[in-house]
Design goal:
With 141 residues, the protein is mainly alpha-helical. It is built from 5 helices and no strands. It starts with a helix and ends with a helix.
């Protein structure tokens, strides 16, 4: 019983300061977001950053959804990342691998706007391809 109380006290002693720091950071981020009148987003986004994805989804919501000869994927709208069988995963992979490098990030935005969650394996491949594309388009330092 004493050991349980010691463990509980240690968890509270560590958890409470961490929670308070987390709350402080959230408030700080919220203030920064409201102070900026128009967020500056890069022209191309790799889809790896939460802020970038959020800003692009807000900006792209007014534009029509762009399709990449992948209308058949709309039937997966609302399905979870783990709910795909191997054939369905391969459908996503086939579309991803037929995209030109400059179409990878816009395809990811299109998928998000259509409410489709990528299967985890394809999502990892998408992030890798998008990161490679972003690195190849950045000027060399």
């Amino acid at each position: 019983m004493l050991v349980s109380l010691i463990i509980l006290a240690a968890l509270v002693a560590v958890g409470l300061p961490l929670y308070l720091m987390y709350r402080r950071d959230l408030r700080r981020e919220g203030a920064d977001i409201t102070q900026v009148s128009q967020p500056a987003t890069p022209i191309e986004c790799c889809g790896q950053h939460e802020v970038c994805e959020r800003d692009l989804l807000i900006a792209d919501a007014s534009r029509p959804i762009e399709y990449f000869d992948d209308e058949e994927l709309d039937r997966f709208s609302g399905r979870g990342a783990e709910a795909y069988d191997d054939d369905e995963v391969n459908e996503f992979r086939e579309v991803l691998l037929t995209l030109r490098p400059d179409e990878v990030a816009p395809w990811g935005r299109s998928i998000q706007l259509r409410g489709i969650t990528l299967p985890q394996a394809v999502r990892d491949e998408f992030l890798l391809l998008a990161a490679e594309q972003r690195q190849s388009t950045q000027p060399q330092q």
